Amino acid sequence: MIPLFQNFILFLVYCLFAYWSANFAIADPHISAAALSTGVAVGALIIWGLRLWPAVFLGALLSNLLLGTSWLVSLGIATLNAAEAMITAGLTLRYVGGVRAFYTAQGCLGFFAAMSLSAGFNGLGMVYLLSLEGPLSGGKGLLFATTWLGNTAVGLALVPFLALWRAHPWPGFSGRQWLELAALGLLLAVTAQLIFGRLIPLPVQQYPLTFAAMPVLVWAAARFSQRESATAMAALSAMAVVGTLQGFGPFATLPPQEGFLMLQSFMAVMALATLCLGGSISQAREAVRAARAAQGELRQITDALPVLVCYVDSEERYIFNNRAYENWFRRPLEDFQGKHIKEVVDEEAYRRLHPAIEKALSGERSSVEAKVNYPAGERWVRAECIPARHNGTDGVIALVSDISECKKAEETLRRSHEDLERKVAARTLDLTRLNEELRKEIAQRKRAEQELRVFAQAVDHVPIGLTVFKLEEENDPGSFRAVMVNPAVRQQVGVSPEELRGRRLDEIASGLFKTAIPGELLEVLKQGRPRDFGVIHYKDDRLGENYFNIKAFPLPEGRIGVAYENVSSRMRMETALRQSEERFRMIFDQGPLGMAIIERDFRLLMVNKALCRMLGYEPDELIGRDIGMIIHAEQRHEDRTLTEQLFKKGRGASFQNEATHVRKDGSLLWGRQNVASFGGG
Description:
The structure is a single chain. The protein is α+β, with helices and mostly antiparallel strands. It has 23 helices and 16 strands. It has helices at residues 4-21, 36-48, 53-66, 71-96, 105-133, 140-167, 175-196, 202-205, 214-223, 226-245, 256-304, 324-329, 347-361, 404-426, 432-459, 489-493, 497-500, 505-508, 517-527, 568-590, 609-615, 619-622, 633-649; strands spanning 25-28, 31-32, 308-313, 318-321, 366-374, 377-390, 393-402, 465-471, 480-485, 531-540, 544-555, 559-566, 596-598, 604-607, 654-662, 668-676. The strands form 5 sheets. The chain has a 5-stranded antiparallel beta sheet with strand order 4-3-7-6-5, sandwiched between helices. Strand 8 and strand 9 (480-485) form a beta hairpin. Helix 10 runs antiparallel to helix 11 (256-304). The protein starts with a helix and ends in a 5-residue tail after the last strand. The model has no long low-confidence stretch (mean pLDDT 80).
């Protein structure tokens, strides 16, 4: 059913904005340089659905009839306007994600493509229909460019503003954020007045100052959400249009038709750049939030383990400790940070543990068993040292588990064996039958001891999922049956140990048989050597799509242990980070403004194509050179002094000034430069 009330409201709003947009008509009363009704129509269809197209059609029909257009041409124009709104909204909803498109750079580019395509289609149709009414003032090319650029620019400036405020109608800002937002709004208004208002003399307005508003938009994108970025762009566009109509700004000095074409291009470029930058920053923020959430989950998991888990760097100083350290050492967790292992354990324990740590630092996994005196009491422990790398520095992940009960059991078994052997030796001649029974009992105890060792080896891998399989049919990897499953599998694959225990490998992980891993598990069992499969991509209907880090190691009595860790979150986070870096590189290299990054010694670290094109250099001729080579000699000292002050102030500091640059051929280039500190040198 067609929602009549919503269509009626949209019809009234569309007619109002269409009437208002007629004030911006330059070459023809039917073609506005700022078609606000187009942005309202596209935004409404994206937010509430394509069922509102009748309101767009009827509103466009009535608006054109009021302008004195014939019924036939009015019907055609109304059809074109409704089709433009439906094409843009339909493509955005179907292929870009609707309102969610404005939260990513890819989505913003997709919306731009849809808006530009439908606006071009509308422009061609409008030129043809209006030519039926009589000769066109200004020519077909000018009317097409005005319609295409005007609708595209208004769509980029107005639709994200409407959609994002509809999705999040009220910002939950703190007091400091409200103050910053007020400062941002004030600076935006002042900047717009400087460019398109009365604050500076008219001759100065002829300078290319239009992109001086970009730092304000970058501020909005970097410090706030896409909603605030879209609002800033919409406000700037409105002030730019009003100022140009009043005869102010760099575009007002041109003939009206050319001036409004330049204004439309300015609005489209600034809106697209702001939306893409804000989308990239939003994606980066989301990746950081995901990384922090994963770090918090990892901390909860490690704190819940009954073993000591720590990470020490190459200097054997603690970087990370789980909550078990507080219970074992009776000290706050903060006391371990940055301390050397010698400062925590006694000298004898360190002497026993040190060889395993050195071996792990050399890149080889190792383990050691030792008796250590803890404040909570003396314990037999097994320390598993795993090579690791954190923030580009080699280190060791140590897993220390309490094996005191196992040692007690071994000691009991050893004493039992000795007792049995003494009894057998004393009664060998007279008690042959008893001796045979005792030998059987010894064999049974040895088997029990072997089973205990298998269990102890499996328990050593508690931080990750572990399943012990036994091959039931020779050369058939599908007959591997799970005989032991540790509790960690629930966190790794989302299935309880009870559901896996006793089932065959082809029932547990059918997707694994699409790879060569089952056959390689047979080789691990036959050759008796462990195997690290690294990270594999796994997918089936039961477990879904994930990435697992898999290791396999042989065990006695025809058994094999498989350890696996779900690293899907890490892989996605690395992919998101890589994509974010690629987007930054693309924006930097392809941006229309000349941009460069310098180091503290004033040498150029990076330059983009626009800067090289302005100055006539190749990138290799500038990178690594002092920036003074492209600054006029009279301004070098002042520019260097301001930049040194900027470095001292740190991240976020900036300054603007007019500078004279020297091209490669010795000619001078006058422009306005904006310099900002990223921090970190």
